Every structure is written in C-alpha cells, then in structure tokens.
Amino acid sequence: MKFDSKNKLISFSPQLAILWYSIIASVLSAGLITFVVLYIESQEQAHIDRVTQSVANGVKTLLEKDIRKQITSLSELAHLYAAPLSTSPSQIADDDWAMISHALSDTDYGYQVITWFDKAYKIRKITPVKTKQSTSDFDVALRSPVHLSAIKEKINSGAGLIIAVNSNQGDLGLGIFIPIYKNTKTSQELELGIGSILLLNTYINKVLPSYLLVEHQLTIFIDDKKIYSDGTDDSMIDSTWNKQASFEFLEQTWRIEMAPESEFLSQTHFRMMKTLMLLGVLLSVFFGLAVCSALFAVNQANKIRCDRKKMKQLLNNLPGMAYQALNKTNWPMIFVSDGCEKLTGYTKLEFEQYNILWGSIIHPDDYERVCQTINNAIKLKNVFEIEYRILTKEKSIKFVWEKGESISSSHTNDFILEGFITDITSIKQVEFDLIDSDAFSNTIVNSVVEAVITIDQRGMIKSFNDAAQKMFGYTFDEIKDQAIKILMPKYYNDKHDDYLSHYIKTNQIHIIGTGRELVAQRKDGEVFPIHISVSEFKNHENRMFVGVIRDITQQRASQEQRRLHTEQLAHADRLNSLGEMAAGMAHEINQPLTAISLYSQTAKNFCKNNQFEKLPSIFEKISQHSRRAGAVLESVQIMTRQGERLKEVVNCKLLIDEVIKLAELEARLYDIKIVPIVANKNIKLVVDRVQIQQVILNLLRNAMEAMQSIGCKNGSTITLTESLKTDGFIEITIADTGCGLAEKMIEKLFTPFSSTKNNGTGIGLSISKRIIEEHNGQINFIPNKPSGAIFLFTLPVHDEGNLDDKFNDK
Ligand code: ADP
What we know:
Elements: E1 2-4, E2 9-11, H1 14-87, H2 94-104, E3 112-118, E4 123-126, H3 135-143, H4 145-157, E5 161-166, E6 172-183, E7 188-199, H5 200-207, H6 210-213, E8 216-222, E9 225-229, H7 234-238, E10 243-249, E11 252-260, H8 262-317, E12 320-326, E13 333-336, H9 339-344, H10 348-352, H11 364-380, E14 384-391, E15 397-408, E16 415-423, H12 425-447, E17 451-456, E18 461-464, H13 466-472, H14 476-479, H15 490-506, E19 515-521, E20 527-539, E21 542-551, H16 553-608, H17 615-640, E22 648-651, H18 652-669, E23 673-678, E24 684-687, H19 689-709, E25 717-724, E26 729-735, H20 743-747, H21 764-774, E27 779-783, E28 789-796, H22 806-809
Parallel strand pairs: 23-25
Antiparallel strand pairs: 1-2, 3-4, 3-7, 5-6, 6-7, 8-9, 8-11, 10-11, 12-13, 12-16, 14-15, 15-16, 17-18, 17-21, 19-20, 20-21, 22-24, 25-26, 26-28, 27-28
Helix pairs in contact: 1-8, 16-17, 18-19, 19-21
Bound molecules: adenosine-5'-diphosphate.
Residues 698, 702-703, 706, 736, 738-742, 745, 754-757, 760-765, 789 line the site of adenosine-5'-diphosphate (ADP).
C-alpha cells in the first residue's frame, strides 16, 4: 500500500487489493447467507406456528360444533322419546330401541352407541353398533362404580355431562349423557337419562378432515384431563411447537392441543438443510470463483509486471522517446522514457520535473504548425503524425517524427497526450540528397532532345520527360501509370505485354539492350517511325525499363525520298535506254527492211515481165539485208544483256535476312510484316548475290503493292519461305494476301512491258525470270488461297552445310 502525497490517494498493490476484496466479499457473503438462513428459519417457524394454531382453531371449531350438535339432537330426541321410555322401558322391543336410537344418531357410521339408563342409573339398553366393539364392552365400562358415581354426581347438578369412558378393551370413548327430569313442584327428579358414547378414534377421524391431522398430533383435554391423544411423541406436546385452542361447554373446559409431528418438523428441517446445502454449494462456488479470480489476478499482475519490465526495456532500446504529457501550453511531460537524453540532451528528470518543457525546444519556425496539428487531432480525437525540428541542449537542430494521440487521464478529467518521438535527421538528410539528385537527373533528362520514358515491369509508365510529352502529345499527368502500349500502334500494342512478360520470365533479349527502329503512335493517332533503345535498371526490388526514343520521321522521309528518287532515275534510265535502243533499232532495222521491201517490189516486177533470170541476184540481196537486220537485233540483245557478273558462295539465310532488312523499311510504312521461315540455316548457293536479292526484293515489293492496293484487308503478313528440295535445289516462295493476279496478266506474266500499274514498267518479272534462268533455276506463280499470289523460284544448292559451320556461331 502506498500513500501518494501528490494525488492524496492511498493505493494498494494489486495482490493486496485482491486479498482485501476477497476477504470483504467472503465476510459479506457469509453475513448474507447467515441472514438468509435465519430469516428462512424464522419464517419457517412462524409459518409452522401459524399453521399449527390454525389447525388447532379449526379442530376446536369443528369439535365444538359437532359436540353441540350431538347434545342438541340428543336432548331433543330424549325429550321426544322420554315418555315411552319412562313408562315401560323394559317393554321396549329391540327393534323399537333400534329405531329410536337410530333416530337419535346415525349409528351406521359405527362410532356411536346410544344408551339409556333409568333413574337408578341402571343401564337399560345399549344400541348395538356395527363396530368391532361389542355392546357389552361399554355396558360393562359404564357400569363401573367410578363412572356411575361420576355420572350421578354431574347429572344431578346440571343439564348434561360429558365424560371420558374406556371400553373393556381399552378403547377411548366419550360419553355424553343427557338427564330427563320428572317435573315436580318441589324438585327435579331424574326420570331417565340418554347417553351417547362416541368411539373417540373413529369419531375424531370422522368429524375432523384428515388433512388437519396429517402432520399434527391432536390432544384433547376436558377440565385438564386428557381424554384423547393421537400422537406418540409426548415431547412435542410440551414444546413451544404446541398450540392450543379451547372452548367452554356444559361447564367444562375443552382444550385442544396441536403439535406438529416430529416427522413433519424433520421434513421441514430437511428442506431447510437442503436450502442450507444449496447455499453452501453456492458459497463454495463463490469462493472457488473468488480464489480462481484471485489466482488469475495474481497471474495477470505478474504478467503486467513482466510486461512493464519488457516495455521499459523496449522503450529504452527504442531509437527515440515515449512520452506522456499534459495538454497544456508547451506540453509539460508527466513521463518520458530514457531515450529523451539521447534525443534532446536533456535528462528524464529535467522533463518530468517540468524544468524543460517540450514546446520550448521545438524550432520556432515549426512551433505554430505543431500546435495546430496537435490541437486538430485532439479536437477530432485522431492520432496525429508530424515531422518537425527541435533544438537540442547543444543547440544543434534535429529533425524528429512524432506520433501521438490524446487520451483521458485516469486521475483527472483532463486529456493527456501520449506518443513517441524519434530522430529522423539522417533520413531527412538522405531525402534532401535524393530530392537534390532527383532534381539534377530530372534537369538532365528533360534537357535531352530524345524522349525518355520509364516503365515498371508491368509496363506502366513511371516517368515521361519533356521531350516525350512534346513527341507524343500527352502530359505526364495524363500518361502517368498508364500502360506503355498506349504509345504504340495496334499491331505492336497487342504484342507488347507478351514481349515484356516473356523477357521478365526468360531474360531473352528482343529489344532490351539493343537499339531498334519501330513505329509509335501520337495522342492524335498519327503513326510515326522511331528509333528506340531500352535498358533495364533496378529500383529497390522492382525491375524498371528506361527507353530513349528518337523520332525518325524526318530521317525516314529523306530516305524514302532518296529511294524514290533513285527508283525514278532507274526507271527513267531504263525507259531512256529503251527509247534510245528502240530508236537505234528502228533506224538500223529500217534500212535493211526498206531495202528488202524495194528488192521484193523489183522481184515482183521481174516476175511480171518474165525476167526470171534476174531473180537469184535479187533474192541474194534480200537475204543479205535480212542477215543485216538479224545482226542488228543480235547486237541489241548483246547490248541489253548485262555482262557476266561475279558469282560467289553465299549463305542463303544471310542473303534472305539482308533482303528482309532492306524491304522492312518500306513494309513498316504500310504496317506490313515480313515473316521469314528458314528450314535450314546452313544452305550455301553460288549466285550473283545482288541479282538474287534484286529478284527477291522485286517479288516482295510486288507483294506489298498488291496488299496495299486492297488496304491489307486480308491480312498484313508476307511469308518468305526457304525449303530444301530433294533434287539438289532450294525453293524460295513469297506468299502474300494481296489482290491476286489480274486475269489478263496471267497469260503474259514474265513478258516484258506487261503491267497493270499506272507507273509500272512491266519488266520486273521478265528481268527476274532471266536472272533466275541464268542461275539455272526456274520461276513460277501460283494463286494463294483464299486470296493473294505466291511467286516461287528454285536455285541449285552448292552446299547443304553442317552444324559446325562458322556461320552458325555468328
Ligand atoms: P510492274 O511491277 O512494274 O508492273 P512487274 O513485271 O514486276 O512490273 O509485274 C508485272 C505485273 O504483274 C504487275 O503489273 C502486276 O499486275 C502483276 N503482279 C506481279 N506481282 C504480283 C503480285 N504479287 N500480285 C498481283 N499481281 C502481281
């Protein structure tokens, strides 16, 4: 127990308090139980007394009433039958007597006999009753001198008499005797008497309801003489349980005494014992519970002590201080943990004795903000969290983080603040450094002309520099946390998630780590070519990707311009040389033809004139000029045929890859994809690389143009397949899903100057055919299903290659 002078309170240790509470509870419960027992007992006793008294009163009333009735009817009937009885009593026949006595009383019940005696008190007749007692039993009893003298004495002096009589067999009987006097002038002379003898046991049981007698002993006294008792336990009669009721009759005092049966009492007692036992059980349970709760409380107290110890240790080990402060100006500290000294330089005592108030060490610039935050939290009953600066004892500035809440004090009605304050100076420093370095890198990133975009491993945009915003037309706020595929046209858009998850799973590089040309899509839907290089970095545990994107629309446009220009030049060149060639040919051939025509005309005239002898020389001339025309054509053919070019051993796959790269630039513009399917990577051919590539490029261009002409509605993929045939040839097929070959073209395919295009020359396929045939191969066409065209050509294989070929390692 402690006396707390400050709070004027006496406080107990928890164990002592529990002990006191248990003792007080036990005394109170014992007192309560005693009171209850005494109360129940007194109530029970009063109840038994009341019941016994009312039973006595009831018995008294019933007996008095019945005895009076007996006397009345006996007197009335005695007077009625007095005359006949007195005149010749001996003459009364048994039947008459039976009738008279039956009229006097209902002897059938078997507890009553009627008798009459003469003036000499001689019993003249006794009604035989249908009981076990014989008439003579009472007859003899009545004849006893004691009875007779008593009867004589009493009857002479009064109107009637009631006495106890015993039968020969010892049965108790009650005799009621009524005298009938002969009226003389001088005195009353007894003429005869009528008596009724009641067999008490039977009579009492008949007159009194059995429930009155069940639990009680009845004793009847007349003039203090006990005439009847149905109990065996006399001790009860003399006890305080015994209750009395009395009445006066025929100058005799009847006293009825009732006492509860000892069995009944013991039953009541048993009930009481049961109640007591129940109370005892309750008391035991109560005590058991009290002991349990006391033990539990002791355990709890130990646990609390242990927890407190741990808590203290924990608080001391925490990198900061826990506190309890009064919610007053500058928050005087009621309690601070030991960490306060390390945090502020001030000791625990300095705070707890209010020498230093917490508010006084808060940095003046932060003070208002701290007050506001704490007051708001108190008002809203919220937890508050705040960062601010404090000035330590050494006058250095520290950043602290505080989390607290207001709680109501257990001693007073005021609120107190409870919370924790920790030093976050180093974290703040790192934060500032980070902000600085972030600002620095942001400045760099925003100053570059390329778009720099960062995404996380789910493809969500995390940064988007100024150049990116300008390039794509989105602001950072619009695009932040959106999927990167928003910046791609539909084709790449669908594939992007697969690429990214495939890379994350397998680390297999597609674009990561390499630069690539792709197409992108601006906010307004415009698709434009880009060069992108992607690298990966780790941000905490997350994989991030940064892409540097350059818009190459300009570059691509000038490339295309150059290509078109070159093509146009080549086309014009071809047309020019064709034109020149045609003019030359016309000139060269015209001459021999004119000559042939002239000689033919002359020959015709010679024939008309029958000058046949001149014909041979004419024909000779015609033949000469024909040969000359042939020679001219041969020289043109020699001129148009390109000179024998250098054939070399080339890897077929490499050759195809190179052509696809050339064609892809154009394909991307149309949003067309070229898919190579190469069965054997090591096949080698001896070909003029440039010419074969020219053939493939020409076929790819035709395919793209055919697909473009119908807006790629049947698909946007061209398949280029290389397969090894069994006859020592490879077959290369280019299958598109374009418009297919026009009906009229099928017949004259591979014929020079056949074209369906506005600006087509119609010599691409014929040149291709010549090149392939010069390489000992064949070129062909078949329609594609369901739409489009397939061009296929064969070339002889030089070497099928093997796996350890150097090319494989490249
Ligand atoms: P040009 O392409 O200059 O017309 P070509 O000799 O290459 O000359 O082609 C001749 C014609 O053959 C084309 O005009 C076109 O009608 C038809 N053609 C060639 N390739 C295809 C193709 N893949 N699909 C449909 N038609 C084609």
